[in-house]
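Q: Given only this backbone (92 positions), what sequence would you predict?
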């Protein structure tokens, strides 16, 4: 999953942020905001303004074990369709 941070105001000179996690054992975050779960639990991902203002925002994530599929069904598993015909060329 990828997080997105928006620096305000829109005309801020420096719009970049630094991403950090408080528990790398649960999730890591890249410099672009891409989060990867590494263990189960609750983790805080923080986006901090790089302009020195001290402004930041936090996202709380709950990382769980994936649940595998136990089956798949297809609606209308047998369908008959007519072959497409090209239109006849227009006569001059």
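A: Predicted residues:
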């Amino acid at each position: 999953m990828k997080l997105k941070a928006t620096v305000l105001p829109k005309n801020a000179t420096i719009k970049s942020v630094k991403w950090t996690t408080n528990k790398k054992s649960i999730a890591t975050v890249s410099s672009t905001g891409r989060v990867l779960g590494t263990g189960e639990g609750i983790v805080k991902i923080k986006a901090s303004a790089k302009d020195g203002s001290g402004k930041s925002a936090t996202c709380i994530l709950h990382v769980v074990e994936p649940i595998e599929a136990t089956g798949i069904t297809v609606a209308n598993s047998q369908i008959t369709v007519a072959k497409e015909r090209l239109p006849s060329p227009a006569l001059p």
